[in-house]
Amino acid sequence: MIQNAARPRGRPRSFDETGALEKATQVFWSKGYDGVTIDDLVAGMGVGRPSLYAVFGDKRAIFLRVLKAYAERKGASAAKALLSPQSLRDSITGFLRYAVESATEKGSARGCLLICVAPLVDDPEVRQFLQNAAAGGTALVEGRFRDAISAGEIPSDFPVAARATQVTDLARGLTMRAQLGVPRKTLLNDAEEAADLALLPRRV
């Protein structure tokens, strides 16, 4: 379980904890988990070594906190794109387009920390976190399909679970292609077509 280190008493901190974690995200992005040292984190986060250990813990603890904060931020935006009041097709398209836009955001590394960096970390807690995050994303899409069945947008025998998995797999695929340098415009066009594929009627 990811827990915050106990906060030391005394003088107020001279740094922003949230901002420091965002800077740590960029450090892990640039060097990968195994390539990052505590010295890299001290320099990148702008936090002295004693404060870093006291507030955030060791490298592993910092990475877990970075993953949690990153997943919460990205997950909330993905959910907003998916669940905003609109047609089912627009919802699925919005979800996939968000994956592309997030993975090609200016000023940030291409791809997604959860898909392009974290899976390379050989740690059981990291793996479990990623599995839980993936399952949560699939459940979110599955819920949107079930709402569409209730609204009469798709038939009651629509393969909800299978298509929800396909949609999240498509989002991951678009993200990985973004990391490889495929242009945003191409990926956005592919997201539109992928949404149509995800909504094809069930085969008889």
From TrEMBL:
Looking at the keywords, is Transcription regulation present? yes
Residue ranges for the DNA-binding region feature of this UniProt entry: 37-56
All copies of the HTH tetR-type domain together span: 14-74
Q: Does the keyword Lipid biosynthesis apply?
A: no
Question: What sections of the protein cross the membrane?
Answer: none
Q: Which SUPFAM superfamilies match?
A: Homeodomain-like, Tetracyclin repressor-like, C-terminal domain
Q: Name one Pfam family in it.
A: TetR_N
**Single Gene Ontology MF annotation:** DNA binding
- What keyword terms does UniProt attach to this protein? DNA-binding, Transcription, Transcription regulation
Which branch of life, at top level?
A: Bacteria
The record's listing under PANTHER family reads: HTH-TYPE TRANSCRIPTIONAL REGULATOR YJDC (PTHR47506:SF1), TRANSCRIPTIONAL REGULATORY PROTEIN (PTHR47506)
Record-given protein name:
HTH-type transcriptional repressor ComR
Organism the protein comes from:
Paraburkholderia sediminicola
The root-end lineage is: Bacteria, Pseudomonadati, Pseudomonadota, Betaproteobacteria, Burkholderiales
Annotated gene: comR_5
